[in-house]
Write a structure and sequence with these properties.
The protein has seven helices and 20 strands. By secondary structure, the protein is α+β, with helices and mostly antiparallel strands. The protein has three domains: 61 residues, Uridine Diphospho-n-acetylenolpyruvylglucosamine Reductase, domain 2 (2-Layer Sandwich); 113 residues, Uridine Diphospho-n-acetylenolpyruvylglucosamine Reductase, domain 3 (2-Layer Sandwich), CATH 3.30.465; 105 residues, UDP-N-acetylenolpyruvoylglucosamine reductase, C-terminal domain (Uridine Diphospho-n-acetylenolpyruvylglucosamine Reductase, domain 1, Alpha-Beta Complex). The mean pLDDT is 95. The protein binds uridine-diphosphate-2(N-acetylglucosaminyl) butyric acid (EPU). Uridine-diphosphate-2(N-acetylglucosaminyl) butyric acid binds next to strand 13 and helix 6.
Length: 335
Amino acid sequence: MPIAFTDQSLQHCNTLGLPAQALVAVLDDEAAIPGLCQERGVPIFILGGGSNVVMQSHVQHRVLRVALRGIRLWQETADHWIVEAAAGESWHGFVTHCLDQGWPGLENLALIPGTVGAAPVQNIGAYGLELDQRLHSVVAWDLQAGQERTLLPSDCGFAYRDSVFKRAGAGRWLIVRVRFALPKTWLPRLDYPDLRDHPSLLGAAPMPRRIYEAVCDVRRRKLPDPAVLGNAGSFFKNPVVDAARAVALTQRFPDLRHYPQADGRVKLAAGWLIEQAGWKGRRLGPVGMHERQALVLVNHGGAQAADVQALAQAVRQSVRERFGVDLEQEPVVLD
Ligand code: EPU
């Protein structure tokens, strides 16, 4: 049976809560994918949890909501559990399930909104761990070639908040399952100061469950819950500048939050830049930058995509004027 797209509202399918109308279909069976590959015409946008997207009111793309489910221990080697999850599983649910089964290793990535299938697209990362450090492989359909492929991490073009699925491969790859290699010799990842200094971890053995709970606690304190206040997490990437530029900036702004990278370049904290530019807790129409984390753009109610883009542009301009740094938007635009 060919998959049917029908006109639907997507307002409850994006965490910013923007009103949007599109032709939508739900994919809950892998058997329907070959039929999709044969369809030509209006391009398809693949939607997971809608937590990293700015939706226009009238979406031209056809939208495929991925609802494939299932989690299993795919393989066990001497050193690793290889766990496979279907793309439509909730990311946080998957992290919790792995911990319950005694397969730790993803706890630093607890409570990130969205689905398993979306996780490799932006190479999710938080509290000292990036997805590519735990990824085994991605099973995806190449919709252009009409065949299923298994991609290794080296095929995925991972970088900070980036992958081949987000760039050239957008609209080409339909991720159906993702496999993670979780080391049997578990080591805590406590590089991130807020985590290392968390009261529940001080003086205690850093067990996976404790780290999981500390990460959830830090996130709940810093970041707004999209179910309460619409948002798409960090709205901009942390900009990376060359070393000479970073030196010049720290001379002018001694408090600048900056992190040297392995390649010699320096990552700047966009939240700090935005706060210093005067946008923390400030509103423009129905949207604003969050009062506890200036990097998060929030919908105070009734916003449309145009309101979001107006604020994003105003923030970028302020940061450019004050620091000479360009901010790059993180969520993708669905038009
Ligand atoms: N800061 C400010 N003012 C602010 C926000 C931050 O001065 O309003 C300063 C903080 O004091 C800190 C620095 O900026 O010194 C970094 O802030 P934070 O630790 O909150 O992390 P971030 O760089 O703003 C990144 C990710 C988050 C992730 C955290 C923790 C990006 C774009 N964002 O934020 O990811 O949770 O690190 O690892 O890389 C997300 O993508 O939605 C997300 C929340």
